[in-house]
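Q: I'm a student working through a structural biology exercise. My instructor gave each of us a protein and asked us to get a predicted structure, then write a short paragraph describing it. Mine is Probable membrane transporter protein. I'm not confident about reading structure output yet, so if you can add a plain explanation after the tokens, that would really help. Here is the sequence I was given:
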Amino acid sequence: MFFELLIIFLIILVGGFIQGASGFGFGLVVMGFLPLFLTIKESTLIVVTLLLVAALSIIFKVYRSIDLKGIGILIASAMVGRVFSFFFLSTYGEMDSLKKILGFFLIGMVIFLLLQKKNTAPDQRIHPLIPISLGFSGGFIGGIFAVGGPFFVFYFLMIYLNEKHKYQANLQLMTIITSLSTITLHGINGDFNSNMMIYIFIGIIGVCIGTSLGMKWFEKLPNHLIKRLAMIIVFIAAINLIILS
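A: Happy to help. First, here is the predicted structure for Probable membrane transporter protein. I'll explain a few features afterward.
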């Protein structure tokens, strides 16, 4: 048990560092390993709770850069996605086959992020279907696997390409809103249990340390290096999930 908790603590620490340094990646890293010890449902609820802690610890440092203009559609769409994901996770969250599906999905996310264009001029005339589709997808996938961040990242990179702090602040705001909705829905449904509390407690310590260290590197470490490291870790974790599930 001690060795298991130590491994989980270190994984969460790394995930928190990547979240603090690049704005996302915590769910991708931790969900690649946590389902090896727990069910998808338990893993998702633990990670979403820790994501809320991570986002709160980051947003207190960048809240002045929050820009609500233009993200209302994204928020509304993400909330709809979270409601749908609640029913899906409540019904199928205990199935082991979801771990294999998550493994393939994580590999798809790695490929998607690696193929993203690095230099794209921000488009001030974004079609409403873009935030609707990205918001719903991020909300739905995030509510099931706690890895919806890349969809929000893609949108915020389009509108805040050269505004690093606005990108970070609004990304964390989305994480807080969507995480709170998932925690509230599943909390009312009685999906949290006492066995999960020790993982959450250990995780809070790890994520606070990790995000604090990550934020210190936020100003000086190139984002592409952090993201590349995260992708390597996620890819290895995805292969483990597919083989071991």
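A: Here are two points you could use in your paragraph. The first helix runs from residue 2 to 22. The two ends are 20 Å apart (CA to CA). It's a good idea to check both against the output above yourself.
Q: Great, thank you!
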